[in-house]
Amino acid sequence: MGILEKIGDSEPTITITNMSGILTAETKLESIEVVKKIKEMLLDEPWCIRYCLRIIPIQKITETKIESIEEEITDLIKLISNGESYRISIEKRNSNISSQELISRVAKKLKIKYHWNFLTKLY
Predict the structure, then answer these.
(1) Quick one: three-class SS letters along 33-69?
(2) Is 90 left (phi over 0), alpha (psi -120 to 50) or beta?
(3) Residues 41 and 70 in one domain
(4) pTM for the structure as a whole
(5) If you write DSSP's letter for every residue of 27-38 in order, what string do you get?
(6) Same domain, 113 and 76
(7) Residue range(s) defining the domain that contains residue 17
(8) pLDDT, average across residues 79-86
(9) Where is 121: in which H helix or E strand?
(10) Does residue 116 sit in helix, strand or coil?
(11) CA angle 71, 94, 77 (to 5 degrees)
């Protein structure tokens, strides 16, 4: 029985990407909740996942263009509540987009001055 099946999705789609060591899992479950449930599993049974260094929930998928990313980020910004903090982090693979330009343009869209963990994956 797979991990996603244990937490409620009996038919996830697992894809091995063309990037070494990275795979994706498409699930009917909400991505943030999946990470929370897997964390709970690891606290109870640390041996249940042996070869995974980290799990990153993907909330949006878009073209690897600064304009497209800017457009999609608008919906995610609405998820930041007053008092929450944020951080803009860029992890690029197979992309020549300027990290500094992207951070600058996304930061301009943020109207609150807190620090929040926000991660954009560019493939």
Answers:
(1) HHHHHHHHHHHHCHHHCCCCCCCCCCCCCCCCCHHHH
(2) beta
(3) no
(4) 0.68
(5) -SS-HHHHHHHH
(6) yes
(7) 3-48
(8) 77
(9) strand 116-122
(10) strand
(11) 25
